[in-house]
Amino acid sequence: MQVPPYAGRMSEAAIDTRDLRKTYRGRAVVDGLTLSVPRGEVFGFLGPNGAGKSTTVKMLLGLVHPSGGEVRVLGGHPQDPAVRARLGFLPEQFRFQTWMTGQEFLEFHGRLAGLSAAERRTRIPAVLDEVGLGGRGHETLGGYSKGMLQRAGLAGAILARPALVFLDEPTSALDPIGRIEVREIIERLRAQGTAVFLNSHLLSEVEQVCDRVAFVKRGRVLTQGSMRELMGGVLPVDLRVNTLAGGLLDTLARLGEVRRSDTNTPGRADVELWLTRDDQIPAVADAVHAAGARLYALTPRRPDLETMFLDLIEDTPEAARSGAEVRHA
Amino acid sequence: MRNVLLIAELSLREATRKRLVSVLLVLSALFLGFFLFGVYRLELTLDQRAIDAGLDGRSPTGAANLPVMFSALFGMYLVYFLGSLMGVLSTVGAVSGDIENGVMQSVIARPVSRAQLVAGRWLGFTAVNVAYVALLAAGLLGGVRLITGYTPPEALPAVALLLLAVTVLTSLTVLGSTLFTTLANGIGVFVLYGVGFTGGILSAIGTLADTPTLTTLGRVANAVMPTNALWLGASYHLQPEIMRQVGEVSRGANPFTSSVPVDPLLVLWAAILAGLGLAGAMWRFSRRDL
């Protein structure tokens, strides 16, 4: 194993960007992105389609040149090959030389990464086993299924024992068992002190493995922090009553934030209400009784990433409506 | 340098594995066999005529042997043409192909500089293309010699000029594949090849008709794309004195061969252009987003 070139500066963050920008023909895809990823943590990078996630990953890997701002990866610049020697990358579009066998593919990437012949001899069978491709290394990549190709790409990403691994949608082609295996690989990487930058749409997956997350929209970070920090503060409650008559909806809007209301079924009204404290739940029941409505369900939910994601990212119909009212006022 | 050689090795293995090399070898063997069979039949006919005329054999450098000389010369033109075609087609996606099919991302994320990657691709493809032209030329000239006993007067400098031409073409194709998509690059390089050929035609007509403007236009085209001028230079070396005299009598009214040697400055410029193509490709690819 070669000496890590930045071993002396382990205190520095794995990724540090300040006001990172990328414009394509005058349109800002990444627009002042400031991000900090500590070493040895699993970091979830979340956002809707077109938020600039992939462009950000490409800038962090030196594939795309930033239009402005600063970027530091493992204490150096990603344009520096010595920095890239310590990175692993599984691209979203995992396409590799189809004429190579799995073994040759890893051999080639091992040589590019500067692994010695002896290291490659032990490391390649080890990573093939780790991603579940043990014994399949002699087949050409052209004959691999999509899931196998993604596993081969993952093997390539972790081959050179990187200090930081970028996984762009690493389970998009995998079945549920494959997803669990990838989660285990990510947890093993964390146990070895490797930082993982996870770009994924599968919020449940991110929720299970990530120490920290950042939400991006239109090329900017909306919020970032540890899961615990971000999850506090919101308590979603599902409410079912027979009617919203008697100004009940207005009363509820004073107690918390009405995210959604559905009165399409006659004799039934569903409301999703976001509270901030537990002790507001009885107050909701009181309000229902006071309005003369009948209560069928009042269910607090555990806050999850999906709730947060929708809160931060999506303009829900309810939010758009209240936004319009504000503008009218 | 280690990375450059690694990428070059990869390109060579890719060419072998994708059956590029085997298809080329088989088709080239077919081409050579077909052509040399024609030369063989020609030789038999010429011998028979000499016997019929009561002559005691033919002089290999005399006018009676002109058909054989022409077969060797135009056989080499085919070598130049096939070599150019193969050089462009094999190299057209050297960089753009890997970008388009997504292979490039995982390679460039490794500690290899983009200039190294382009240099490695160039080295690999130049090796394949140069070896191909050298092999084809050796096969053709060797075959003609075996059958007829005739070898063009200065075969080695002629082949060297052809190898330079295919190197220039490979460099420009690699440059194009860092600038354009594979398809656009293929079209562009063929247009350039056509520009070179146009240069030869304009020069020939300009000389024949004594029109300086045409000659100047031809010179411009040759500077932009010197491959055809290199072929014409090679053709000079491939002709014995008697053929050159025929060429001079016709005042160069033949755009395929030349009765004057190539300008050494043009050879130098072609070598510089090959270097510039490679340097431009390395520079351009280093600045490009993927």
Keywords:
heterodimer; A: alpha/beta; six-stranded mixed β-sheet; four-stranded antiparallel β-sheet; disordered C terminus; B: mainly alpha; 80% helix
Blueprint (SSEs and pairs):
The complex is a heterodimer of chains A (329) and B (290).
Chain A: E1 15-24, E2 27-37, E3 42-46, H1 53-60, E4 68-73, H2 81-84, E5 87-90, H3 102-112, H4 117-130, H5 146-158, E6 164-168, H6 176-191, E7 195-199, H7 203-209, E8 212-217, E9 220-226, H8 227-231, E10 235-241, H9 248-255, E11 257-262, E12 269-275, H10 280-290, E13 295-300, H11 305-312, H12 317-328
Parallel strand pairs in A: 3-7, 3-8, 5-6, 6-7
Antiparallel strand pairs in A: 1-2, 1-4, 8-9, 10-12, 10-13, 11-12
Chain B: H1 2-17, H2 20-52, H3 66-91, H4 96-100, H5 103-108, H6 114-148, H7 155-179, H8 182-209, H9 212-224, H10 227-238, H11 241-249, H12 264-286
Helix pairs in contact in B: 1-6, 2-3, 2-6, 3-6, 3-7, 6-7, 6-12, 7-8, 7-10, 7-12, 8-9, 8-10
Transmembrane segments (chain B): 20-42, 122-143, 155-175, 187-209, 266-285
Organism (chain B): Deinococcus soli (ex Cha et al. 2016)
Keywords (chain B): Membrane, Transmembrane, Transmembrane helix
Beta-strand content estimate of chain B: under 5%
Q: DSSP helix count of chain A?
A: 12
Give, in order, the helices and strands of chain B. Answer: HHHHHHHHHHHH
Shape of chain A: elongated
Radius of gyration of chain B: 21 Å
Low-confidence stretches of chain A: 1-10, 323-329
Major sheet details of chain B: none
Q: State the largest interface.
A: A-B, 28 and 21 residues
- Average pLDDT score of chain A: 86
Count of DSSP-assigned helices of chain B: 12
Mind describing the biggest β-sheet of chain A? 6 strands, mixed
Query: Which ranges of chain B are low-confidence, i.e. pLDDT below 50, for 5 or more consecutive residues?
Result: none
By DSSP, the count of extended strands of chain B is: 0
Radius of gyration of chain A: 24 Å
Mean pLDDT of chain B: 91
